[in-house]
Design goal:
single chain; 224 residues; alpha+beta; Enolase-like, domain 1; 2 domains; four-stranded antiparallel β-sheet; two-stranded antiparallel sheet; 7 helices
């Protein structure tokens, strides 16, 4: 249950620029961005000294959970009485689940740190990283540099040519429920982010995934 003190937590943490504290890894065509666990927890404690975290154990007292084939960890971060919980598979350097008989204590510890960082992101810290954004909302967006025209030798007037085909805009993902229909009604990325925050949907993994896919089809702001 949310407390009266929690209302400013998300806006406080979501306004922090985390870009200088991330690490990017390239795996084939996939680029993955990670936020430093030590820095993230330090920022949380500076803003909210009473914040705590929990590493959930299974019935046998292990600090990870398993279905007999693979394994995962469960962690939680509590700020101002509100806990955000994150489940994370124990993965290898390719971001693939490690078979249970290959899992080491180092793999478990690394997964716990990443899971806690993502739990902190549910409170707002670096959430834009997992939503595919480049900068937090308050830091704005830099305009793209203008392309320089290359010099070409003078030529005779060209005959009429067919115009180059224009790429079709990306199709919007189909909404599967009423909440996604509301998100689909947004006309810009700015409006989309505002709706996610106002309706407290930033902790809903499925809605954040849908919003990320939807944002690729939307302009940053509406033209005036």
């Amino acid at each position: 249950m949310e407390t009266n003190n929690y209302s400013s937590v998300f806006s406080t943490l979501n306004a922090i620029n985390c870009n200088e504290h991330t690490e990017t890894k390239q795996q084939g065509a996939t680029k993955l961005t990670y936020l430093s666990w030590a820095w993230a927890w330090a920022e949380v404690k500076k803003a909210f000294p009473n914040a705590t975290f929990t590493i959930y154990e299974n019935a046998e007292g292990w600090n990870y959970h398993t279905d007999g084939r693979t394994a995962w960890v469960k962690t939680g971060v509590t700020i101002e009485g509100v806990e955000m919980i994150e489940y994370l598979p124990i993965m290898d350097f390719r971001n693939q689940s490690i078979p249970l008989d290959k899992v080491t204590s180092f793999d478990v510890n690394k997964a716990i740190q990443r899971s806690l960082t993502k739990a902190a992101a549910r409170h707002g810290l670096g959430l834009y990283i997992y939503a595919g954004e480049d900068l937090p909302e308050e830091w704005g967006h830099s305009p793209a540099p203008e392309a320089k025209a290359s010099a070409k030798p003078a030529t005779k007037p060209a005959t009429t040519q067919k115009p180059e085909p224009v790429a079709e805009p990306a199709a919007k993902p189909e909404p599967k429920n009423e909440d996604e229909k509301l998100l689909a009604s947004c006309k810009s990325k700015t409006e989309l982010r505002k709706m996610l925050t106002e309706k407290n949907w930033t902790a809903n993994v499925e809605l954040v995934k849908y919003a990320t896919a939807l944002s690729a089809c939307l302009p940053e702001t509406l033209a005036v």
